[in-house]
């Protein structure tokens, strides 16, 4: 896992594919207009995802010494919760490997803690879902705050520019002071 995380972090940070990945996740149409091979990027992501799911299935089967079709039934929720807790946006275009690993550790500790306390599997699933909902709400609130700050900053710049133009017009000869 550590080797895979390091390889993925390097690819995301330094390879063109990593930039393409964020571009496609952020805005697929804009990425396509920018020259990103969107279909190829998506195909590669699905291929890597399938390979990692197969590897996880092999690990689970080796732990159980049997292949049960329902063995990984709730793991997708753990994966979503881990990346959302780690800072990835469900809207796409944001997140990193370090955050996903931290989120995975948090979910792992949450799972272990709930089992040690004796919480039923139903309530464990409920609590993980609640964590996802709260993380998404925090993410949406943060995005709204960033958008409102950007809008306020743009409005300030427009006011400054309008004041500069007003001053230029009020100055004799029309030249700025």
Task: Provide a concise account of the structure shown.
This protein has seven helices and no strands. By secondary structure, the chain is mainly α.
Structure explained in plain terms:
The protein is an all-alpha fold and 177 residues long. The chain is 79% helix and 0% strand. The chain has helices at residues 2-14, 16-26, 28-33, 38-64, 75-85, 97-117, 121-170. α2 packs across α4 and α5 (75-85) crosses α6 (97-117). It is elongated and about 90 Å long. The mean pLDDT is 86.
Give the strand tally.
0
Estimated radius of gyration: 24 Å
Specify the oligomeric state. single chain
Can you summarize the main beta sheet? none
Q: Given the structure, what is the number of helices?
A: 7
Q: SSE order, as H and E? A: HHHHHHH
In round numbers, the mean pLDDT is: 86
Structural class of the secondary elements? Answer: mainly alpha
What separation lies between the terminal Cα atoms? Answer: 62 Å
Range of strand content: under 5%
Ranges where pLDDT stays below 50 over 5 or more residues in a row are: none
- The outline comes out as elongated
Helical residue percent?
over 70%
């Amino acid at each position: 896992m550590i080797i895979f995380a390091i390889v993925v972090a390097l690819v995301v940070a330094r390879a063109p594919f990593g930039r393409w990945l964020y571009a496609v996740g952020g805005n697929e149409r804009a990425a396509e207009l920018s020259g990103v091979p969107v279909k190829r990027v998506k195909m590669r992501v699905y291929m890597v995802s399938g390979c990692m799911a197969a590897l996880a299935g092999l690990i689970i089967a080796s732990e159980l010494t049997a292949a049960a079709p329902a063995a990984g039934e709730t793991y997708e929720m753990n994966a979503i919760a881990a990346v959302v807790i780690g800072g990835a946006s469900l809207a796409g275009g944001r997140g990193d490997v370090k955050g996903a690993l931290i989120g995975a550790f948090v979910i792992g500790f949450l799972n272990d803690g709930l089992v040690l306390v004796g919480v039923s599997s139903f309530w464990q699933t409920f609590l993980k879902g609640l964590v996802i909902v709260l993380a998404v709400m925090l993410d949406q609130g943060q995005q709204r705050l960033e958008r409102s700050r950007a809008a306020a900053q743009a409005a300030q710049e427009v006011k400054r520019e309008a004041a500069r133009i007003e001053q230029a017009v009020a100055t004799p000869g029309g030249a700025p002071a």
